[in-house]
Amino acid sequence: MTHPSVQPQPAGAASQPLSPTAGAALAARLDVALAAAPTLDARLRLSADHISGRVAFSTSLGIEDQAVFAGIAMSELPFDVFTLDTGRHFPETLETLETTEARYDRRIRIVFPDAKEVEALVARDGIMGFRQAIENRKACCDIRKVRPLNKALAGARGWITGLRRDQSAGRSHVPFAEWDANLLLIKLNPIADWSLETLEAYVEANAVPVNPLHAQGFPSIGCQPCTRAIRPGEDLRAGRWWWENEDGKECGLHNRPKTQDAAE
User: Fold this and answer.
1) What gap in Å lies between CA 243 and CA 181, rounded to an integer?
2) Which of 77, 105, 226, 235 has the most CB atoms around it within 10 Å of its CB?
3) Which CATH number goes with the domain that contains 135?
4) Residues in the chain with pLDDT < 70?
5) Residue 140 included in any domain
6) What angle do CA 65, 209, 226 make, to 5 degrees?
7) What is the model's pTM?
8) Which residues are catalytic?
């Protein structure tokens, strides 16, 4: 069934990349349509129906992404699901990966950083050098996460994430869909408006596997050396890179600088 506010892309449209103008227009229509869709399943199906070509979902295996993956798996949608193995994950995160694949009988593609780039970084900064300077930490995130993500998303038309607006002040205005001018694709955030209560209710109702670290005070789980449990009253992302003082701490996956769209 065609959603009244979004027209499906014509057959063969995936053979050519979306132009910035066409991509931004489709993203704007999808943003409105996803907001009106009543369920996660409906939002995911809407995304599949109206974006021609490969749609990728990058999962960190945190509770938000686990919910989104459950929706994808239960709806049997043909999205390209992958995760970034930075080489510094908690053992619990890797066990969650194995449990999730078994639960849904679906493989999650694992994307690794370039080994030579990692070796050069460690040789320059040391094994824990990312704690010595924000620039070092961002360089580590760039090599272990951002570059592998860019490689994994190359050629994709859509990118699904588990971002929610109440995760942090810096994410309070996350749209349901937007044109990513850097990656030249539509970025989709199907649970952008979910509260933590809505998320936890969905996970419980659908018996979604959850990383056990969440129950130990880790609402946001990244690399082991860069993540701690939060204290009562702290922001949900306060445990990430806790030795830094700057606000709006991100690794670079979701806070890329805006660029001017190229002329068609």
Assistant:
1) 32
2) 226
3) 3.40.50.620
4) 1-16, 246-264
5) yes
6) 55
7) 0.86
8) 251
